[in-house]
């Protein structure tokens, strides 16, 4: 092993930070994105750094927090499965753990293989490639929140229930939103079950095909957009160490300088009003607007159909 290899030098530096107490148990070590920026290396090198630290028993992957320094009283996990133990289930669990910790961008066939302690080519016996892997990851986590066998009697109750279910999944794992393509949807059983539920609720309302699809797609778009914002916020918090509120406070002087020009009186007025952005409130607000719009359309077209 070449001790002068870039990844080895980075490993040594992070190892030294841990040894000196600059990184304590539970502290997050630099993410792969931070490593690429701080040391000017490729993502593959950054991935190898994390893998090496994990193999040495120095770090753990913690969902929602990234890779953290291992507690001294926690024994290392076995990372070298026998080939016969490797299957789609184990691969998906490893890939989901990576996405939970570091986001979808960190998921690659090489990274999953590294975390499992196996050769990258071994994964292709169970998944055809990265796209197939991502699709089955999303389908698996959507199955964690199941729709009831008997839907509510009213169409609006059905759509509220299914939308809240999908939001719950995306709230827990925002990276799922990256797989929910609006223009190139992919077919898997659990994703299709959600679509079937929504379209079935709309089918008996006398709506045209375009209305049915556009209502469904607008609901998905609303949820997906919020989840992508949540994913971006999680990534920025990990990278900067600042909460959204803390980051906004750093922009206060710049905001004040711009509005002082007098071109944005409404923004200047609103800046003095108390407002706390809450994505859960925003989800419910947007869901209500979409469904209120559908209900008004039904009322107009059916001449007084009410809930």
UniProtKB/TrEMBL annotation:
The keyword Cell inner membrane does not apply. It comes from Crossiella cryophila. Pfam families: GntR, TetR_C_1, TetR_N. This is DNA-binding transcriptional regulator YhcF (GntR family). PANTHER family: HTH-TYPE TRANSCRIPTIONAL REGULATOR RUTR (PTHR30055), TRANSCRIPTIONAL REGULATORY PROTEIN (PTHR30055:SF151). One of its GO terms (molecular function) is transcription cis-regulatory region binding. Gene3D superfamilies: Homeodomain-like, Tetracycline Repressor, domain 2, Winged helix-like DNA-binding domain superfamily/Winged helix DNA-binding domain. Residues 108-127 bind DNA. Residues 4-72 form the HTH gntR-type domain. It comes from the Bacteria. GO terms for biological process: negative regulation of DNA-templated transcription. Keywords: DNA-binding, Transcription, Transcription regulation. SUPFAM superfamilies: Homeodomain-like, Tetracyclin repressor-like, C-terminal domain, Winged helix' DNA-binding domain. Residues 85-145 form the HTH tetR-type domain. Signal peptide: none annotated. The keyword Transcription applies.
